[in-house]
Automatic annotation (TrEMBL):
GO cellular component, one term: endomembrane system
Subcellular location: Cell projection, Pseudopodium membrane; Endomembrane system
PANTHER family: DRAB11-RELATED (PTHR47979)
GO molecular function: GTP binding; GTPase activity
Coiled coil feature spans: none
Similarity comment text for this entry: Belongs to the small GTPase superfamily. Rab family.
UniProt protein name: Ras-related protein Rab-25
Gene3D superfamilies xref list: P-loop containing nucleotide triphosphate hydrolases (3.40.50.300)
SUPFAM superfamilies: P-loop containing nucleoside triphosphate hydrolases (SSF52540)
UniProt keyword list: GTP-binding, Lipoprotein, Membrane, Nucleotide-binding, Prenylation
Organism of this sequence: Xiphophorus couchianus
Function: The small GTPases Rab are key regulators of intracellular membrane trafficking, from the formation of transport vesicles to their fusion with membranes. Rabs cycle between an inactive GDP-bound form and an active GTP-bound form that is able to recruit to membranes different set of downstream effectors directly responsible for vesicle formation, movement, tethering and fusion. RAB25 regulates epithelial cell differentiation, proliferation and survival, thereby playing key roles in tumorigenesis.
Description of how the protein assembles with itself and partners: Interacts (GTP-bound form) with RAB11FIP1, RAB11FIP2, RAB11FIP3 and RAB11FIP4. Interacts (via the hypervariable C-terminal region) with ITGB1 (via the cytoplasmic region); the interaction is GTP-dependent. Interacts with ITGAV. Associates with the integrin alpha-V/beta-1 heterodimer. Interacts with VPS33B.
């Protein structure tokens, strides 16, 4: 039985400081940087995942969340098969901007791509300002998957 191999591009999007770079670092290198710096432009990493007889090589692009880099980063959305739209569960403003991020994504990429809304920084659960039920409803309205 032959093994199938696929390659796909994923983009991490969301406001600055929500933890996109640490998600990338944790997933691709199993590292967590306590003193992470703001991403300038874009950075990317790859990880190959084995599922039964199926190999997936993911190219994961970490985009800057700061407004001044938007014109640069939006160019990297093209060709993506999926996106993680990340917000900080302890900072409601980062969650409120999700619709704007989604619109920008769909303006520059395939509007039928798979998008997952990700509530990040679970270690700050005691400071949560975005209720899980609210995020579930919102993800449903946006037709996104949810992880929080």
């Amino acid at each position: 039985v032959g093994e199938r191999q696929e390659e796909g591009k994923l983009v991490l999007i969301g406001e600055s400081g929500v933890g996109k770079s640490n998600l990338l670092s944790r997933f691709t290198k199993n590292e967590f940087l306590h003193d992470s710096r703001t991403t300038i432009g874009v950075e990317f990493s790859t990880r190959t995942v084995q599922l039964d007889n199926f190999t997936i090589k993911a190219q994961i692009w970490d985009t800057a969340g700061l407004e001044r880099y938007r014109a640069i980063t939006s160019a990297y959305y093209r060709g993506a098969v999926g996106a993680l739209l990340v917000y900080d569960i302890s900072k409601h403003l980062t969650y409120e901007s999700a619709e704007r991020w989604l619109k920008e994504l769909y303006d520059h990429a395939d509007p039928h791509m798979v998008v997952m809304l990700v509530g990040n920084k679970k270690d700050l659960e005691s400071l949560r300002t975005v209720p899980t039920e609210e995020a579930k409803d919102f993800a449903g309205e946006l037709n996104c998957f949810l992880m929080c």
